[in-house]
Amino acid sequence: MKILVCIRQGLDGEINPFDACAYEAALQIKGAEVTVMSMGPQNAKDFLLRLTRLGAKKAILLSDKAFAGADTIATAYTLSLAVKKLSPDLIFCGRQTLVGDTAQTGPMLSVYAETSLITNVMSIDEIGESITCTTRDMGIQTAKLPALITVERINTLRLPSIMSKLGEVEVWSAEDIGADIEKCGLKGSPTRVLKTYENYSGKRKCKLITAEELDGVINEALKKNREKVSVAKSDIKLNRVFIVGDEPYSFAETVSDDITVLEKTDAETIAETIKAQKPNAVLWASDAWSKETAAKVAAMVDLGLCADCTTLETDGEQLIMYRPALSGSIIAKIVSLTKPAMATVRTAKSGGDIVVAAGWGAKDSLDTVKAFAQRIGADIATTRKAVDNNILPYSMQVGLTGKTVSPPVYIAVGISGAVHHIVGMQQAGTVIAVNPDKDAPIFDYADYGIIGNCDILK
Fold it and tell me: What is the pTM of this model?
């Protein structure tokens, strides 16, 4: 069994956390010959060399000036050439990087490398002539080998042992993999970032309330159920915008009056429809199926795809897309050089009408938080720190390395308000924060706040 693990070095010089989980999952497959592969500058060789101490037989570094500036399509194309040269039985990728946060490269790579695909893997259940996995959102999935899987944050990457040895690192250029440099790097990238700026979009004006007012505020918020995303309609509109499923309609009507709804069917059918009918833009929802299928269709039709957009505009010719990046700390303004422009837009709603999120500050009062959630009929969520310390399970984690939720009411209890959590809940209708620290950043992202500890929920 040959397994190839695709990894990316983060801005901090360390392995991307989702890729670390993919690497560990590969190392746990008994008898597997594991190779790690990355695309980057020559100085990434030392980074890969260190990773070979954990168990990979060798590492491949794809390094060439022609690869610089690649978006997800160009990255997937380049990686696929190396995959075909290596012919692995399985390809493991992390769900997404923390730089782009798109979760597109894995599905795109599966198309270019001509493998089957399972995304958002929570556990690997069986491997034979096929692989069976339990996924985060789509249940148990089985795919024939060769297959590519994208892995959630399901484990912790091991440390090297005292007796571990360094493997070898091979550096492959564009010529080594037979790459068409017109399809690589910036030249081969159909999406362009026009501008970036600091993200203040999630901030709200917080009104302090008392514990006695809490139930009334919740009930009023449920009645109100305001729009999850504030969007402004463009004066000039695009002709012929397709949406896949009904969910992106509110986004589509901000940029077009000519909207066609496509059925959520297989990627091949949707790709053929797009090629035949040539709309100006195609919008997708942000559920797991839509994200996976959008990425596959983009690769099939060689189109740019912008992920997780919060706002759309148009000048009548181009679709202008805005999305958070770098853990939500900045907003990027993006256009596509290919037509139709394609984007996934933030539409996902997870769970019921009320979510109560227990943070690290609520670790000693979980019974109180759970009883409160049960009383008001709420789902439970949590933060990365609470998950990392085994307070609550990963399936409940909201944030950059967890899931995104947008309920009518989100109640954050004992949560400081770190940006990597905010990015997962900032599209909620009404946000209520409970924290004893009046200066906690969470209050900047809340509509209502209570200064106090978990006892106020009793």
Answer: 0.85
- The number of angstroms, rounded, from the C-alpha of 166 to the middle of its chain's C-alpha atoms is 32
pLDDT, tens digit, 9 for 90 and up, residues 214-268: 999 999 999 876 444 445 567 889 999 999 999 999 999 999 999 999 999 999 9
DSSP label of 396: G
Cis peptide before 340 (omega within 30 of 0): yes
Q: What is the Cβ-side half-sphere exposure of residue 420, based on CA atoms within 13 angstroms?
A: 14
Q: Which two tokens stand for residue 93?
A: 């990728």
59: three-class secondary structure by DSSP:
strand
What is the structure's pLDDT at 99?
A: 77
Q: In what order do the strands lie in the sheet with 305-309?
A: 259-262, 241-244, 281-284, 341-345, 305-309
Cβ atoms of 152 and 136 within 8 Å: the answer is yes
Q: How far is CA 302 from CA 183, 295, 335, 339, 402, in A?
A: 10, 10, 15, 10, 29
Domains annotated on the chain, with CATH: 2-183 (3.40.50.620), 207-227+350-457 (3.40.50.1220), 229-345 (3.40.50.620)
Say how far apart CA 297 and CA 319 lie, in whole Å. Answer: 18
The answer to whether 92 touches 151, Cβ cutoff 8 Å, is yes
Measured CA distances, 322 to 95, 307, 329 (Å): 22, 9, 13
pLDDT digit string (tens) for 152-183? Answer: 999 999 999 888 999 999 999 999 999 999 99
